[in-house]
Amino acid sequence: MIEITNLSKNYGTKKALQNLNLKIEPGKIFGFLGHNGAGKSTTIKTLVSIHNPTSGTVTVDGLDLAEHRQEIKRKIAYVPDTPDIFLQLSATEYWDLLVAAYQLDRDAVQSRLQKLITLFDMNFHVDETLSSFSHGMRQKAILIGALMTDPDIWILDEPMQGLDPQAAFDLKKLMQDHAQKGKTVIFSTHNLDTAEQLCDELAILKKGQLIYNGSVQDLLNQHENKTLEQVYLEMAGRSDSKIMDELEGGGHE
Amino acid sequence: MNKQQLKALLSVNLRLLNPQATNKYREKGKTGSALTRRLIGNFLFLAIIFVLFYGMSMMAADMTKAPGLFTYFVALFLILGISQSMTGIANVFFAQKDLQDYLPLPFSERDIFASKIIIVTINIFPFTLPLLMLFAITGVYAKIPIVVAVIMALVLFVIITLLIELGCTFVVLLLSKTKFFQKHQQMILNILLGITIVVAVVGMMFLNNQMDSGSSGIRTFPVIGLFAPLFNLLVHPLAMGSIIHWIVLFVVTIGLIFLLKKSVVSSLMSQMINVNSNVEKAKVKSKRKRSTSLAGSLRSYNFKLLAEPNLLIQIFSNSILVPIVFIFSFSFSGISSELGIKWLGVFFVGGMFMSGITMNQSSLISNLLSLDRDNFEYISSLPISKKYYLKNKFFFGFIAQLLINAILIITMGFVYNFGIVMSLSCILGSVWGSFLAGQYYFYRDYRLRLTNWTNITELFTRGGGNLMMILIMFIVMIVGLLILGAYSFMIIAVSKPWMTNGVVAIILILVSFFVMNHYKNVFWKFLD
Ligand SMILES: Nc1ncnc2c1ncn2[C@@H]1O[C@H](COP(=O)(O)OP(=O)(O)OP(=O)(O)O)[C@@H](O)[C@H]1O
Ligand SMILES: [Mg+2]
Hints:
The structure holds two protein chains of two kinds.
Chain A: E1 2-11, E2 14-24, E3 29-34, H1 40-47, E4 55-60, E5 63-64, H2 69-73, E6 76-79, H3 91-101, H4 106-119, H5 135-149, E7 153-157, H6 165-180, E8 184-188, H7 192-198, E9 201-206, E10 209-214, H8 216-222, H9 228-236, H10 243-248
Parallel strand pairs in A: 3-8, 3-9, 6-7, 7-8
Antiparallel strand pairs in A: 1-2, 1-4, 4-5, 9-10
Chain B: H1 3-17, H2 19-27, H3 32-59, H4 67-95, H5 98-102, H6 109-141, H7 146-177, H8 179-183, H9 185-210, E1 212-213, E2 219-220, H10 228-235, H11 240-281, H12 294-305, H13 311-329, H14 344-358, H15 368-371, H16 375-381, H17 386-416, H18 420-447, H19 457-460, H20 465-493, H21 497-522
Antiparallel strand pairs in B: 1-2
Helix pairs in contact in B: 1-6, 2-3, 3-6, 4-6, 4-7, 4-9, 6-7, 6-11, 7-11, 9-13, 10-11, 12-17, 13-20, 14-17, 14-18, 14-20, 17-18, 18-21, 20-21
The structure holds adenosine-5'-triphosphate and magnesium ion.
């Protein structure tokens, strides 16, 4: 279980995250929703040790993240929000790096790796450098790496971005299977259909603050006869409601 | 230390260090560990070439009879090594964005640190390996059995390399501990590296001034006291004083290693991460007036490109430091300050060559287009004339280059007493020379444009790499000196100097016409 307590993160004077409290349980798919800049990636980057929190704590299975980084990192696979990392390496070299990082046995993961490569249709590209890949191919290469190491906790920042429909479908299936095995899947998305389809539990962020935490079903029950899209837009909605009309109506005088 | 992790990290860093060779081997179908082996082989080859390059000049003299020359070489390579190592540390630890990418992975911090420091050490080998050579040659000349001499040289070399690295690491680490540094990281690093470069330059000038040209024309050097013990260590290893010096060296080195291990490595990564994540928060509060003209916007955009961490340092060290080493290795002694007007042409041509030496593949003008990354393609889609855009960029880089040359020439003018008129002529020559050479390098950047680089050094090593750069500089230098020599001789020998000057002027005009026409035909013509 992951417990986030009073977590805040400032970038300089900008408050990107304020006093976040969350419990993320294994066996469920946990989704982050929120407008651009709401703080989803900031939360995720704190969980995966990219950022140190300004204040607050994170514990994973009872261990304090600040004190047991190495141990905890080995339990986590992370897919970043932009796949532009390690561009100089070939896909295989990148996976080799991960094998070494997680101290796995190359031969032991080989068959899983091969299946993932085939699943994501990347057989012809394994020796090409990531820099020569299209956006979606980079995303696939990084997903394959994360899924290959297969630790208990998956943390995926907008993982479907750029994937073709087949790959997105397969990924969703893999995420469900992983949660079904009693493990943890955390992801962020802008796609409300995906959220509705996948998430057992939701956290909605708005300007660095948590405005909803609970199951999708509860949320829909609270607002009868509304779709998730309608509910979400109401909650996270914009500050100036007339702006759209102005833009389309009077804006062209 | 985990061997599996360290090995993986090193092979990644090896690719980052040498992207150009990496790409070359990839095209030949090498990947994975085969590629790593080739890169190591490639690196060894380069190191050997470097050693031979410098070693030749050392071989020639019997160092045991010239302790002054020995200490001169030690000082020279130490200065170069230290400044290179500062740059390396700043680059590898503070500029490489890959640190962020490692963070979520379960690498031990110590291995990340080790892999980086090893890379930094490799980075200074071109400047430290000649020291190894120097030590070995000196030992051999001192009639010490070859095997013993080589072992002694190796030990001394390792100690010196360690001392350089440890010293620099401490400086950077101590700095990074302070709040002030965390706030103004880039500025302080720039200043620090600036100081190193200035020290290197001043040091080199000082060394050159120490050099007496004896009546026989052979250069002799006074012994530099600080390094004299090193000389004695190698020549009389068993003397009492030498043994004490050996012990002191060992103790100091081991002490430093111990200190580093105890105090720093543990807190190092978190410190680095702190420092690095602080960079992001640095808010860009642009108080600059919003410019309304396209030229104005482009200029301020080009200025912002310079904010790339370490770009300026790299440019300055490559455009100033390396040329200065060359310029001062050939000394211009005996230039009279009362040169007649007939020498103007010689200085003009001198200025042109000067610009040929200071402009190279790491100059701003040779990288400006690649600095655009993906912006360039995007800009091509905008309703701006591409030719206008490129011309604007060219002149931006050209002016930067002019500033560098002007500063160098004015400094040289003072040191060697050229006088104002000759300095001006030299500066004008460098203006014209930079314009012509700029055509080549600007077009080269266009041809070899890289948009997806992650570390600025990838840009500098496009094409022939560093070795090629130094080789070209060397050739330009030699050819330049020959031509200048011939020109000067003609000025003195021919009774009517205006004839010589006239011929040179005609040649210059023809060459200029040819160069400009060439780049107009292969490059500028095709835009729009
Ligand atoms: N490296 C950074 N430096 C400064 N500010 C940052 C940085 N990263 C994020 N921020 C700020 O923190 C806030 C939250 O950003 P975050 O990346 O967490 O948003 P997000 O919810 O992931 O948005 P998106 O849907 O666009 O990915 C934003 O206001 C952003 O400007
Ligand atoms: Mg995000």
